[in-house]
Amino acid sequence: MLLAYIIPYALISAQIGTTFTQDGGGLATWVRHTSGDTLGYVVSWMYWSSTLPYLIDVSNSVIVAISWLVLGNNTLDKHMSTLWFGIFTFLVILIFIILENVFSRSMEVMSLIGGAAMFLMAVLFVALAAAGIAKGYHPASNLFDLSAYKPHFSTHYFSTTGLLIFATSGAELGATYIQQVRNPKKEFPKAMWMLAIMTGFLIIFGSLALGVYFDANHLPNDLKMNGSYYAFHYLGEQWGVGNLFMYMFAGTQLVFMLAQLAVLIDAASRVLSADTAARFMPQWLLKKNRQGRPIHSYIFTASCVCSSYC
């Protein structure tokens, strides 16, 4: 995955960003300038619509992180109905759009803090998992049998790989901020290389560390929603600190997901309206506020996400 997808993907994203540094539509800009306005317009809508499910997923993750901070366990479904879960997700998106447009640098600050903290938590998890094995902790998965790493090509294998590709995608969103980079031709490719290296570290060593605490053949059904919290809970139990690591991760996850939410709303809105031929789009959707953000596209994006709960 690292050699066949992640590194080429990062390099392609770097190419997208550095080819047209005067426009802020990312992938839509690239297609528009290479294949014409019409195809660029189609791509902007397609890419924008594909971002909406992920926006919902990130918003849900914010609520889950708050529930672990408050409840300290996975009993959110016993305290909140699906309706209220949707209502709270709607409120998270609404409040965040307001705050993001009131405080001009909120997205940059939260992205820096959340991203750095999450990477440090991942490094801590990997390091302590390795130290635990060195102390004699028996891993739940068979990490030392080479046959366990041999792929069995099946529908399950390819569906799992597809989920991994989905989880590691998103680097091209950085191209929408190329105008804000001081020296895009030089700095943006460096950022993409750093992203590829960090992603590779998390995929390889993070997966091995998760194998210490989860049996790969008997994973919990709610692994996607609560798996990370279980992992840090097990880590705390192993090192005799109770739920300390779990609460540290929950707080980090909350900030990280809020930062992701900000970036996704902003970037999806820019792809949709920042560099689309004016003859295709209604003028109200192209309007920008004094901070240069496509504010009506913001509202339109958030409204579509929130309406999915109705």
Describe this protein with a few key phrases.
single chain, 310 residues, 72% helix
Describe the protein's architecture and organization.
This protein has helices spanning 2-19, 27-35, 37-71, 76-79, 82-102, 106-134, 155-168, 184-213, 223-238, 244-273, 283-286, 295-307. The chain is an all-alpha fold and 310 residues long. The chain has one domain: Amino acid/polyamine transporter I (Up-down Bundle), CATH 1.20.1740. Helix 3 (37-71) packs antiparallel against helix 10 (244-273), helix 9 (223-238) runs antiparallel to helix 10 and helix 10 packs across helix 12 (295-307).
Please describe the topology of this protein.
Blueprint: H1 2-19, H2 27-35, H3 37-71, H4 76-79, H5 82-102, H6 106-134, H7 155-168, H8 184-213, H9 223-238, H10 244-273, H11 283-286, H12 295-307
Helix pairs in contact: 1-8, 2-3, 3-5, 3-10, 3-12, 5-10, 5-12, 6-8, 6-10, 9-10, 10-12
What does this entry show, briefly?
This protein has 310 residues and is an all-alpha fold. The protein is built from twelve helices and no strands.
